[in-house]
Amino acid sequence: SPPRAEKLRADARSLSRTLSARLGDVKPPPPSLRLSAPDPLPPADPPPNLGAAEQRLRRFQRLLQALPPTPLLLQLRSDLDNLCSLLQAMAVLKGCGDPPGPGPPPYEHRDPPQLEPELKELLEEAPHTVAAMALGRLRSCVEGVVVGLEGGVGC
C-alpha cells in the first residue's frame, strides 16, 4: 500500500494501543457520578470495518463527554478524537466513499428512550457502574480495532 496509507495505519495502531493501555488504568468512577447522555451503551465486540469502527468510537466519545472531566478522561477523549480522525483519513484514502455523517441515532426518535431495562435500572441506581462498564467496553472495542488494523481492515 502507498506510504501515506501505511503511516496512517501505523499511527492508528500505535494510538489504539496507547488508548487501550490508558483504559487499563481507569478506576471505577465514584458513586456520585451522573450520566447525562441517553445513550444505551455501545457494544464491545470488534467493529467489522473502518466506517463501523469510527462510528462506534464516536458513540463512545459522546458517552465520555457525559462524564465529569478528569485529566485521564480528557486525555482519553483527545486520543479517541485523534483515532477517529486517523480512521476517517484511512477510509478516505482507501476510497471507502464519504463516511456517513453522525445522523441522529434511532433512539432519539423514540418516546421514551428505549434503554435495555437493566441499563435503565443501572443508570438510576448505579451510574458509576455504567461509566465503568462503558470504559471496559471501549477498551474491548479499541482492542478489536488494533487487531483489525494489524490484519489490514477494509472499508
The biggest beta sheet is recorded as: none
Q: Radius of gyration, Cα only, in angstroms? A: 16 Å
Q: Provide the low-confidence segments as ranges.
A: 103-115
Helix content: 55-70%
Q: How far is the N terminus from the C terminus? A: 15 Å
Structural class: mainly alpha
Instruction: Quickly give the CATH architecture.
Output: Up-down Bundle
The amount of beta strand, in percent, is under 5%
Number of H- or I-type helical stretches: 5
Bulk shape: elongated
- CATH topology: the name is Growth Hormone, Chain: A
Number of domains: 1
What does this structure look like?
With 155 residues, the protein is an all-alpha fold. It has helices at 3-24, 50-65, 71-93, 117-125, 127-150. The chain has a single domain, classed as Growth Hormone, Chain: A (Up-down Bundle). 61% of the residues lie in helices and 0% in strands. Helix 4 (117-125) crosses helix 5 (127-150). The protein starts with a helix and ends in a 5-residue tail after the last helix. The relative contact order is 0.24.
